[in-house]
Amino acid sequence: MHPAILRATHRSLLATRPRYLATKSATSTAEGELNVEPEVLTEYPDVPPINHQYLRPTGWQDNQMRRNYGDPLHEQEELYSMWSPDIPAIDPNVALKRFTMALLGFTGVFLYIKTYGTPEPHFVRRTYPYGGLVKELGGLEENRARMADETSEQ
Description:
- The chain has 154 residues and is mostly helical.
- It contains six helices and two strands.
- Strand 1 (25-28) and strand 2 (34-37) form a beta hairpin.
- One of its GO terms (cellular component) is mitochondrion.
């Protein structure tokens, strides 16, 4: 973009932003992006980052969210609220190892049953002389071409 367009865009963004953002320092980069660096929240209380799922379930004004009315929220409340993703009961690495072991176990049991649990057929399989009648049927290449032609017609 042209530098004059960047300056005009930057001025219009500064003029239209809310008043609470006016105290923050804003600079434009060469690509035209607006960098807003937040100031440290000095007046807001420092709330510890504790997930609400670890707190006791009763004794709160709002038992569902496990908080009292008027309590300050953490700035990343969506990560620590009751609606955040559940805390894993076991370490994810241990869970992955156990899942892999269970998957291998089920696969091994399936293959064992498939191999040793399938009975032999009660009939004698048919055998053809001369290498399975390859010469009499016209050879392997001719059969492959014929099979491809037959499947394309259907």
